[in-house]
Amino acid sequence: MSEQTNCDCHKAYKHHHGALGGAYGLAVLGAAVYYIQHSATFWAGVLGVLKALIWPALVIYKLLDFLKM
């Protein structure tokens, strides 16, 4: 067994999400609040939360379609 008990190998896998991760999280939260506020029923609110989770994918799809890529 190695004499070094505290392995520094886990330091190589640090996650750096940066500002974009926070901006994405705030955008999803804001979209969820928007959809929930404008829902008339419980199930419309549930659908709004699901929409809030997938709206970035739809935006990128529409952007790429617009740019003909």
Description:
- The structure is a single chain.
- This protein has 69 residues and is mainly α.
- The chain has one domain.
- 65% of the residues lie in helices and 0% in strands.
- The mean pLDDT is 81.
Give the arrangement of secondary structure elements.
Elements: H1 18-37, H2 42-66
Summarize the structure.
The chain is mainly α. 65% of the residues lie in helices and 0% in strands.
Q: For the terminal residues, how far apart are their CA atoms?
A: 55 Å
Q: Give the ordered list of helices and strands.
A: HH
General form? flat
- What percentage of amino acids are in beta strands? under 5%
As a percent range, the share of helical residues equals 55-70%
Main traits of this protein?
65% helix; 69 residues; 2 helices; mainly alpha
